[in-house]
Amino acid sequence: MSLIELSGITKSYRNGEVVTPVLFDIELQVQQGDYVALMGPSGSGKSTLMNLLGLLDRADGGHYRLNGLDVTDMKAAQHAQVRNQTIGFVFQSFNLLKRMNVLENVALPLLYAGQGRAAARLRAQELLEQVGLAELGHRMPNQLSGGQQQRVAIARALVNRPPLLLADEPTGNLDTRTTNEVLALIGQLNREQGLSIVIVTHEPDVAQHARRLVKLKDGRIVYDGAPVEEGKA
After folding, report:
1. Would you say residue 215 has pLDDT above 70?
2. Of 25, 17, 21, 86, which is closest to residue 56 (Cα–Cα)?
3. Chain-centre distance of CA 223, in angstroms?
4. Contact status, residue 37 vs residue 206, Cβ threshold 8 Å
5. Strand ordering across the sheet containing 18-31
6. What is the structure's pLDDT at 113?
7. Which member of 11, 79, 96, 158 has the lowest number of beta carbons within 10 Å of its beta carbon?
8. Can you tell me the mean pLDDT for 183-210?
9. What percentage of the chain exceeds 70 in pLDDT?
10. Residue 231 reports pLDDT greater than 80
11. Is-contact 196 165, C-beta < 8 A?
């Protein structure tokens, strides 16, 4: 079953009378359980496409179905509800709240969703165990390494049990060893739990961990297939 279906998606940005086209007639499907790396040079449209997939922006044309729902013309409040139920986000800069400890950071989305504090903390602890940080819930984010912070961010992204994880350059601030550890965790979540993953990266080595590579150039998909070494697609 398709989790993501994009058909004829177009997007432009306007600055006064200046219109800058960014995406042209994007056709893309992501099946449940897929693991897709999204690549392209600066200005290719990959970040815009990621924002559209995450319902953080709206296309100018075309249709978008997400987890069986046509979200094309939904209002912002509806997008927020679907986003909270369907999508977990992981960013390059971790985006952890400095004033909260690790457990509180992971539990926060559940509190926003109206879950009781005790149940939220229990679920958060379960996720910390899953990402190998069971003993660090009391620590503050600045007491963790970069790799540990990204694991916390992944736990937070999954606390609502979304079927889709969108990761925007999740290893961009990490060294090689820590990058491999984080990618191993993401791959494990995909293989063992069937989590669908779309990861934006400019690193061919990172894309090699995915099952599928989608390359953009000048706002168009120019390759959609198995990951290949840079320069061969």
Report:
1. yes
2. 86
3. 20
4. yes
5. 18-31, 2-15, 61-66, 69-70
6. 84
7. 79
8. 94
9. 98
10. no
11. yes
Has residue 233 got a pLDDT over 80? no
The pair phi, psi for residue 218, each rounded to 5°, is 50, 40
Residue 90, C-beta contacts closer than 8 angstroms, at least 6 positions apart: 150, 153, 154, 157, 165, 166, 167, 168, 170
Residue-number span of the structural domain to which 55 is assigned: 2-97+163-225
- Rounded to two decimals, what is the model's pTM? 0.92
Q: Higher confidence at residue 197 or residue 227?
A: 197
Q: Say which residue the tokens 């004033």 belong to.
A: 99
Query: d(Cα 228, Cα 165) in Å, to the nearest integer?
Result: 22
- The answer to whether position 106 is within a domain reads no
How far apart, in whole angstroms, are the C-alpha atoms of residue 183 and residue 171?
A: 8
Residue 21's CATH number: 3.40.50.300
Give the count of domains, the chain: 1
Check: CB of residue 66 under 8 Å from CB of residue 34: no
For residues 32 and 3, the answer to whether their CB atoms sit within 8 Å is yes
User: With 0-12 CB in 10 A as exposed, 13-18 as middle and 19+ as buried, what is 99?
Assistant: exposed
pLDDT digits (tens, 9 = 90+) for 15-58: 999 999 999 999 999 999 999 999 999 889 999 999 999 999 99
Tokens at 45, concatenated: 């449209």
Structural domain includes residue 190:
yes
Residue 62 in any domain: the answer is: yes
The answer as to whether 125 is a domain residue is no
